[in-house]
């Protein structure tokens, strides 16, 4: 039943498959709550085994783009489920945070800060009406060796090799971002001969002075730049006519730092004092209809115009060739347009969580082209099982494609839902 378990460390594949197979055989005959308990036990067992080996830098995984649909990969432990297993169990677990770390990093007063001691994440991707699913997503806990820090993102590949580009970015970007962050963070650390009290004092000053957020912002921009440079140097991936969007999120305590490249989007779901739902868009879609983006494209001799059969969609074209027609103005890859205004610098935004904030949704444009922010927030909030929230959003998007755009091919979709409060238990 569990015949496609895949892991990032190949030498441990057989060992972990035996653990997972023994669990999968009986998992569907027991209660869902027991499934979750057994899953966590299996993950913990593998984690303990991994700790006995040389500690490796966490690397990204991806959702295989070849299948119709799949749940997300738990990158931190290299865990991947089959489609059937994903649908039965969902993509869910509680992420424990050390109370000292959480209280120090969450420097907003506690009465204004949501409970971040238990974070629940749901991830799902589904192929549209293309031959290959070019969307991918990732999730990493304790990112960059920072307890309680979460890194997640969704990526929308495009062009002939978009799925290859998206997969490569999901694997490589986390390593680059972690390296950039750790390099800059070390500058604030005292010498190794300093006392623990000195280290803690320096770290608290680092947080209280706002340097934490600034360092993440600079690190994200630097990592995206390095990622784009690597793509052009990697002869295995043709990134001249192909590329990927990216919207990524770092969650550290009550702070969200987002990096956005292209037309994928992140929104925040909150509840008002009267109990009503509020949808707040955290990123700006980097499209040619955005004046400042269009001005840069035209200044670099790129062209922007709509196709006759798509009069509402502005696209970016080469100066003397009606190609490639990108619907976004920022992307990783797509080197055919890099001289003509397309850039790989992400737009960075910062958000501080408050008591009413419940969850964040990251999704590719296959969702946003047919659903509003409010519809997505309502769908997530009304889904009984949080593990199914991301799949519920994609199901709603696919229904909208069929009913509202019957003459168009449904686009691929990838969704990550990150919940903050622990008031609702998911069994």
Automatic annotation (TrEMBL):
GO terms for molecular function: protein serine/threonine phosphatase activity. It holds the Pfam family PP2C. InterPro entries: PP2C (IPR015655), PPM-type-like_dom_sf (IPR036457), PPM-type_phosphatase-like_dom (IPR001932). PROSITE patterns: PPM_2. SMART domains: PP2Cc. Transmembrane segments: none annotated. Residues 120-420 form the PPM-type phosphatase domain. PANTHER family: PROTEIN PHOSPHATASE. This is PPM-type phosphatase domain-containing protein.
């Amino acid at each position: 039943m569990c015949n496609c378990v895949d892991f990032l460390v190949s030498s441990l594949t057989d060992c972990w498959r035996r653990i997972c197979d023994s669990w999968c055989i009986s998992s569907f005959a027991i209660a869902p709550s027991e499934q979750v308990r057994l899953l966590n036990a299996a993950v913990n067992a593998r984690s303990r085994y991994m700790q006995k080996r040389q500690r490796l830098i966490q690397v990204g995984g991806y959702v295989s783009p070849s299948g119709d649909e799949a749940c997300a990969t738990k990158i931190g432990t290299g865990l991947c489920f089959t489609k059937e297993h994903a649908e039965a169990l969902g993509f869910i677990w509680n992420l424990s945070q050390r109370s000292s770390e959480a209280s120090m990093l969450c420097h907003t007063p506690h009465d204004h800060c949501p409970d971040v001691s238990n974070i629940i994440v749901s991830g799902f991707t589904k192929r549209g009406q293309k031959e290959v699913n070019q969307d991918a997503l990732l999730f990493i806990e304790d990112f960059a060796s920072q307890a309680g820090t979460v890194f997640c993102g969704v990526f929308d590949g495009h062009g002939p090799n978009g799925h290859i580009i998206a997969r490569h970015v999901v694997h490589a970007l986390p390593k680059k971002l972690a390296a950039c962050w750790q390099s800059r963070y070390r500058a604030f650390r005292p010498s190794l001969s300093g006392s623990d009290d000195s280290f803690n004092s320096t770290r608290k000053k680092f947080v209280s002075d706002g340097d934490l957020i600034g360092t993440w912002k600079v690190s994200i921009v630097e990592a995206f730049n390095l990622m784009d440079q690597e793509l052009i140097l990697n002869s295995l991936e043709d990134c001249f006519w192909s590329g990927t969007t990216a919207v990524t999120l770092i969650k550290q305590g009550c702070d969200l730092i987002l990096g956005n490249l292209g037309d994928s989007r992140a929104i925040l779901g909150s509840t008002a004092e009267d109990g009503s739902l509020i949808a707040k868009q955290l990123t700006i879609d980097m499209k040619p209809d955005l004046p400042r983006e269009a001005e840069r494209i035209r200044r670099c001799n790129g062209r922007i115009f709509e196709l006759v059969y798509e009069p509402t969609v502005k696209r970016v074209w080469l100066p003397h060739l009606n190609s490639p027609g990108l619907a976004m103005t920022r992307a990783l890859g797509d080197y055919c347009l890099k001289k003509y205004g397309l850039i790989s610098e992400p737009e960075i935004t910062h958000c501080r969580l408050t008591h009413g904030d419940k969850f964040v949704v990251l999704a590719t444009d296959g969702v946003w082209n047919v659903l509003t922010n409010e519809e997505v927030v309502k769908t997530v909030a009304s889904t009984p099982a949080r593990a199914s929230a991301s799949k519920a959003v994609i199901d709603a998007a696919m229904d909208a494609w069929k009913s509202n755009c019957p003459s168009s091919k449904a686009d691929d979709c990838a969704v990550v839902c990150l919940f903050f409060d622990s008031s609702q238990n998911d069994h």
